[in-house]
Write a structure and sequence with these properties.
Layout: H1 7-56, H2 75-82, H3 90-93, H4 103-109, E1 117-120, E2 153-157, E3 177-178, H5 183-188, E4 200-204, E5 209-212
Parallel strand pairs: 1-3
Antiparallel strand pairs: 1-2, 2-4, 4-5
Helix pairs in contact: 1-2
Amino acid sequence: MRRAFTLIELLVVITVVAVLIGLLLPALSAASEAGRLAVCASNLRQSYIAIRAYADAAKGLTPSLGQPYSRLPNWGVAVQQAAGQRATTTDGALTANSVLVCPTSRSRFGRDVTRTYAINVTGRAGLPGDPDNYDTTAVHVNMDRVARPGDAPLLLDAAMPRTSAPGAPPPTRSVSVIDFRQASHVSERIGRVHGRDGRFSVLFFDGSLRTTRDVDAAWAAPLP
């Protein structure tokens, strides 16, 4: 006759399995995040190519950084058109499965998010000394005149809006602009979604990219 497991033996087996699962889950989670981070980097690079191509056809000028938020030449719509979208408005162009959505942000904020990146507007926010205001007029930056393109962010992971006030993005879209001179923008608008230590991906005007948890003081330099 075959001897059955005793209760103690069964508990030992369950304990061993639980320990193995506990050891494997962090490794599986880290591998999943590494894959999402790679997709995020690819999204940002594709967005850079779209913006750079737009600038090459517009004497170095980017799409509009802010206004008009709902249609071309807004940068988000321009990126989506370069990716194959035919819509000319934000509502039609922004979709859940696009280069403007980081998969890590999607896993955190929900599968219906349609934008999770923001563009740099430092120096163009209508503050004293600024030549214009992205919130009231179409603002274009000359990419060829950025003095230190490897130190100037172009796009980065963004946070979801904290308010539903008039003019704020809908809850499925991140904030779309950030001015690194403003402490509230730095503390509230950066999407620190990668890893437990609050990292975020940043793509620079020269096309380089890195993931960091630190905001460099050089990022506060006004854009031309």
